[in-house]
Amino acid sequence: MVCRANKDVGEELSRLQYALELIRTAESRGGLSFNFKNDARKIAQAHEETKKDNDFIYHARVPEAKALAPIGKAALARPLPVPEKFSSSGPELFEALLPVSVSQALQKFDVRKSEIVNGEIAKLRHQSQLLNGFLTSLNLPAALEDTTGSTLPQSIKDKAKSVRDKGGIQAIEKLINDLPILLERNQEILSECERMLREEEESDTQLRAQFQERWTRTPSDKLNASLKNTGSKYRQIIANATNADGIVRELLSQPNDAALQGGVPTGSPTASNSPSVVRLRQLMDQVEAIRAEREVMESQLKDSTMDMKPKFLAALTQDGSINEQALSVEMLGESLGPLQKQVAESISRQEALVRDIQEANSAFCQEKQSKGGNTRESALVDLAAAHDTYMELTANLQEGTNFYNGTNFYNDLTQILLSYQNKLSDFCFARRTEKEELVKDLQQSIINKPTQPTPTPPSHHAAAKATQPPPRPPPPATTASAPATGAAVHPTPYPMMPQGMPQPHMTYPGYPQYPGYAPYPAVPMPTVYNPYAQPAGYPPGPPQYQPYPQYPQPRQQYGDYPYPRQQ
Q: CA quadruple 545, 548, 553, 555: dihedral positive or negative?
């Protein structure tokens, strides 16, 4: 198409001819798998038309296919610059992808920042608690409102109203009475944990006393110190949850101001415009200003954000490494330095303010000269302390209570105690396994310990042994007596048994014999199987019969046979 547009008929004809050769080769090689008939028909038709036009009109020279210029590359797509964000609808998938060194530096920076922020907030809260405790001990600012000596101060009324709005002592009792089963379950779990720790420590102490210096493993009281502290904390939480309302149980049980006023003794009135009262009110205003400033400083510390990613990336690109400590300390000093300075100034101002309050309160107390002044002051202090305790207890219960899906403080505490119990079980199992292995090794070492050599006997033992008489000689061996020499040895008519073998049957005595008569032959006994007898051979010839005796033969004595032998 390009050659036709450029009126280059010769090149067009050459390319069509080359394309026709290629399509025929493809048809021959492709076989039935590919169908090139349509393409081949189109190429052949275009080749014929172009050749016809060239032969009759243009007469252009047709170059060889090898001499043609290669076909140029067509731009299928136009390249575009890489955008900063590929998708504007959602967050980038690899936006948070960072080098490992940068990621580790950011984690260390977050740890440093959290330590500083938490430390400064802890300082502020600790100082605020000290200030509140100091003012409560002086009954301030309630003592400034009690100038008449007969009515309740407005601050006491406000505190009593806030307690009643939160449900009073009944709300705390309801929370406690509704959860006796879970509370008992928590106490059982905690008692079981304490028992496991106690038994493991007692076992370690007993084995250490038994093996002494050979018991080389770490003592249990050092390893389980943190576990014991955690258990004590949980025990204290349960105790506070059940007994912390004792202070406010009697003082806040009445729902009206008349009951509170009746429980507070009267005192002498004090001038509301006296110098000491005016001074104390000014100091109380400064206390409220410090509290407000600390709330603002605490929120600023919590909300402080610093993006160290660009600095760490730039340092890694420029130097090839990141000096995290130097960069973090510099950035934290710039961002949190002013807040740390404000915290220090607030603490120093509080120390000076406490001294001024103490001096002004001393002057204020000297103006109150009455019998009931001290008693009334003590009652008001107790009421203020009871209110603070109630609010603290209510806040703790509200923080620990989760009404979503019916869960509550004790359920959460149950899960925490179960996790604590699992940790203790793992600890005790590991210690028991270690104990068994160590005991086994110690027992094996005791067994394999070589015995001490036998001590050499003294010399006098050897002399005593030499003087002993020789042992008695053994008795002489008995031999079987030989047969009488006068007796003739004749072969027996039956096979002889080997000497020492058992007899096949017992021997019966023969018939009685009379002198001058031949004895009766013995009664033959039934033959039984004798495993020791030799089988009898066949007779070599016919049996020989003995002749009748003419005279009685004299009786002969045989020592070995119970009856006379037949001749």
A: positive
How many angstroms separate the CA atoms of 136 and 133, rounded? 5
Please give the share of the chain, as a percent, with pLDDT higher than 90.
5
Print burial letters for 376-403: b (CB count within 10 Å at least 16), e (below 16): bbebbbebbbbbbbbeebbeebeeeeee
Burial class from Cβ neighbours inside 10 Å (0-12, 13-18, 19+) for residue 331 reads middle
| Helix/strand/coil for 524 | coil
Q: How far is Cα 548 from Cα 515, in angstroms, rounded to an integer?
A: 20
Residues 356, 283 contacting (CB under 8 angstroms): yes
45: burial class by Cβ within 10 Å (0-12, 13-18, 19+)?
A: exposed
Q: How far apart are CA 212 and CA 205, in angstroms?
A: 10
- Tokens for 532? 């020791």
DSSP 513: -
Residue 507, CA atoms < 13 Å, CB-side half-sphere: 8
Mean pLDDT of the chain: 73
Q: What tokens were used for 280?
A: 């104390």
Looking at residue 406, its pLDDT comes to 38
Look-up of token digits 């406490």: 354
Work out the burial of residue 257: count CB atoms within 10 Å of its CB; fewer than 13 is exposed, 13-18 middle, 19 or more buried. Answer: middle
Q: How many angstroms separate the CA atoms of 160 and 139, rounded?
A: 16
- 253 touches 390 (CB < 8 A): no
CA distance 139 to 377: 7
pLDDT tens track for 7-17: 778 888 888 88
pLDDT of 425 over the 80 cut: yes
At residue 262, does pLDDT exceed 50?
A: no
Ramachandran angles phi, psi of 306, nearest 5°? -140, 130
The pTM of this model reads: 0.39
Task: Give the residue among 144, 142, 166, 168 at the shortest CA–CA distance from 155.
Answer: 142
How many Å apart are CA 235 and CA 190, to the nearest integer? 7
* Mean pLDDT on 248-269: 46
pLDDT tens profile 123-149: 998 998 898 888 888 877 777 765 555
User: What is the domain partition of the chain in residue ranges?
Assistant: 2-67
* Structure tokens, 142: 């309630």
Token output for 49: 């038309």
For 36-87, the pLDDT digits (tens) are 888 888 888 888 888 888 888 888 888 888 888 888 787 788 888 887 777 7
- C-alpha–C-alpha distance, residues 186 and 117, integer Å: 34
Structure tokens at 247: 């202070």
| Helix axes of 309-319 and 100-137: crossing angle, nearest 10 degrees | 140
Task: Mention every residue, 6+ apart, whose C-beta is less than 8 A from residue 507.
Answer: 562
CA distance 442 to 440: 5
Half-sphere exposure of 229 (CA within 13 A, CB side): 6
**For residue 501, is pLDDT > 70?**
no
**pLDDT of the residue at 489:** 46
Q: What 8-state DSSP symbol labels residue 82?
A: P
